[in-house]
Every structure is written in structure tokens, then in C-alpha cells.
Amino acid sequence: MKVPLGKSYRRNAIVIQFIILLLIPIAAFASEIKISSFNVNFNNDKLKETFALIKKFDPDIILLQESTVRFKKGAKDHLPDSYKFSWFVEDEHESGGGFAVISKLPLAEKKYIEKSTGAFGAQKFRVKLGQARIHFVNIHLNPAPLPRPFNRAGALHAMMMNNRTQVLEIRNILKQCKESHPTVIAGDLNSFPGRPAYRQLSSRGFTDAHLSYDANATSVSTWKMIVDGAPLQGRFDYVFHSKSFETKKLAVEENDYSDHALLNCTLKLNE
Questions:
Q1: What pLDDT was estimated at residue 156?
Q2: Considering its fold, how many domains does the chain have in total?
């Protein structure tokens, strides 16, 4: 015999269903992720100002290059409690790259990619966005050795001669990446767009997020220094992503705290 359901039973069932929906983490439905990448400069002592600049974007993942012990403490002092997860490479390895990740999302499969050539290695880890597992690589490629005496022509020549080392670095890093995984490779390439290090990434199917968002990105500078009394500058900082994503936003934030600009990027995971 079918027993009719009373109004209070139906009302209670609706309430229970509503509570269950509230208990499902919002991250389970997430398809966008906000990333900040910043070479903060070893000599940067403006920690409060630097983290205030980063906080404006409210990123899910913060990737730092040239971070120091000061920045590890500064992150605790100046970032909200929502950034519960971090990994500063110096805790476990000798790395002049100053790699650090600070995250709202739990970090998994953490691996420091030892340098094969060049000055640094790379920082690799994974986060979960909804049901997707996203792999990140935080990079800081070999800087060109500064000539003595230091001048504009010598600096540009050194950058060109640095290409081979950077290509070997990128190849070593790409060996650690599986093409089937949604992947983001971001950081300081110490190289201009279209140079060999850049081409290594684009030839492997990685998209330059900035260029996909802004057709004039190549003319935008993210690094600068004064040489012979005039600025030497160019786009050295990048966010590359696999075909699993599309770029929803990319902004370059100039600042007085580092010789590099801050990159803020929003990526959407394709369904």
C-alpha cells in the first residue's frame, strides 16, 4: 500500500537536499583558476608593499622567483589565512632560483627538478580544481652572465649566447611533464619572445597566455634595467598553458619593488 507523504515530510526533504548542496565544496564546480607569477628580486625589502600588490588580484596560486627567507616570513605576516599551503624550495634544496608557491589549494606531488645545466632547476607540483588535476611548473631560466665592462651591446650579446643553455634547461623540464595532463608553466624565462627557449615551449603545444589574450603582448615589457643611461627592457616573464585551458585574463602590474612586473592570469579549464 502506498502511504501519502505529508507536507512536513516533503518540507523536511527539501531542507535536507538544500543542506547537502551547501556542504558540497564550491571548488568541486570550479573551472577557473587565478595565478600570479612574480620575480620579486632578491634585494626587494618592500615585503608589505609587494604582498599588498599581489593581494589585489586575490590569486588562488602565487608563484615566486628569487624569493628569500624574508619572503617566507612576509607571506605569513602579510597574506590572509586563506593561503594555507606553501612550499619554499630552500627548505629542502640549495636553489638560487628562489622558488616558492603559496596557495589556497592543497599542494600534491611536490618535486624539485634538479638543474641539468644553467643556474637553477624548477619547482613542480599539482593542485586539484574541481575533479581536474592541474600540474604546475615554476621556472627561472639561466640569466645571461653580465659582461665586464657592462654595456648595452655586451648585455645583448650575452643574452644571445645564453640561448643554448636555456634550451637545455627547458628540455630537461619538459621531460618531467606529461602531455596528457592539464599543465601550467610560468615564471621568468630570462629571454625575449620568439627566442629558442620560448620556441621550445610553443613547439610542444604550450600556449603563451599573454599573447592569446593580447595580440600586442610581444611589445609589452615585464623586465627592465638601466644600461648606458637608458632602459634595456623586454618581455621576460610568461604564463604558458596546455591546450586544456583558455586565457580569460592576463594583466601586467608594474611596480617599484622589483626589476620584473607581476603577472596576473585567469585560466579557464576547458570542459
A1: 80
A2: 1
